[in-house]
Amino acid sequence: MAGREKSLRGQVFDKIRSDILKGRYQQGDELVECTIGKELGVSRTPVREAIRQLELEGLVRLVPNKGAFVNGISARDVTDIYLIRSRLEGLCARMAVENITPEQLEAMEEAIVLSDYHAKKEHYEQVCEMDGKFHKLLYEASGSRMLSHTLSDFHQYVQRVRQVSIMNRMRLNKSGSEHTEILEAIKSKNADLAEQVAARHIFNTVENLKHFNLEEILREEYGKENDNNGKN
What we know:
mainly alpha; 3-stranded antiparallel β-sheet; 11 helices
């Protein structure tokens, strides 16, 4: 029973967080426990616990005597996430050198081939899907559940920004070649190089994002002002 309750709490948390990140809940929207509970067919308890966990992640703010309100993701959050990812994905690639399986190598190679195919046809949605698959496989190849979980969360936080970045043709081509560099470094068992190219790959995305108006992208995603979010 305890395991089932824990699973239920996790499902509710994942659903609410996904709705926030997809923009279903806009910045400033109130999360009403009883309403969400009815929508999901659960009691208020797992909803309340999920909201508290979302507050710890910064996606929700609790206002005494008023309720829980959506924070969303700010432009500063996006930049911070990518900078943190650059370090963690470097570590991930280093660990993958020792832990990756032949099946994972093959799957990553397939993701690169399919990504190149769709890139030539300008099928951006499919390219984004293959990009996500490549990184997911890399996380799993590290052999670290904790690292994989953390990086997967960060990946979800910036879904919309990733899509916009990938639609930049110049970045699209470079990203594909960088994936190949990462995989080749892992295959050659060069841990130092794998860490270096994986970290640089994410850092290059940060540089590419400077060409975009992140505040505008995030306003389109969440429907309200995000640029004041996180400012002191």
